[in-house]
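User: Hi! I'm working on a homework problem where we have to compare a predicted structure to a textbook description. Could you give me the structure for the chain below?
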Amino acid sequence: MLRIDGLSAAYGRIKVLWDLSLNVGSGEAVGLFGPNGAGKTTLVNCVFGFLKPISGKVFFQDKDITGMEPHEIVKLGIALVPQERELFPNMTVEENLRAGANYVPHARERMPEAFDLVFTLFPILKERLKQKVGTMSGGQQRMVAVARALMSFPKLLILDEPSVGLQPSIVSELFSKLKEINNQGVSILLIEQNVKQGLKVVERGYVIENGRIVLEDSSTNLMNNDHIKKAYLGL
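Assistant: Happy to help. Predicted structure tokens:
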């Protein structure tokens, strides 16, 4: 579904990604793990057209989307939950959710169905529908961000560090919801520092360090890998 081939990227003269390749199959949940500054968010920026790569290609369902505008990419069926959430704090939960569907034609027509979907996954959002998002807890805001992305009926959901700033119990709850979303047929690319929790959600994963993929394996094998245990799990 998503295929990244030989991607290199830089900010000015500072090169961040070197010949990076990965793929996410239809209905698959894949993780991209690595420390701060490894290049994870830069990869997201290249996929969504926020940053033009130096070389390499990004394909979605065999279509070359390298360098396309972000709004065009969203209409193809890719949704992003950004690291900083980027919600509208002075707008209500309902208004934020509607924003996720309003500019995607096929989603706008199915908005009642989308609301049913997100309320099934996150019942608390139905209770807080008229609440301003800026008055909600960090965990609830993260739920709004995920729900807003789902309002566009994406084929692929990309999440950039969804666990950042959340207490462990909320992280476990959120990640269990991601498992449910994947079980409904939505492909997931989970970009995370929290390797221990992330590996419970995905089927396989990549490890990025200093802008390069250094490991690729099943989630089970990564969990038992000596480098992962030492560098990321503290074992």
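For your comparison, note the following. The first strand starts at residue 2 and ends at 11. The radius of gyration is 17 Å. Good luck with the assignment!
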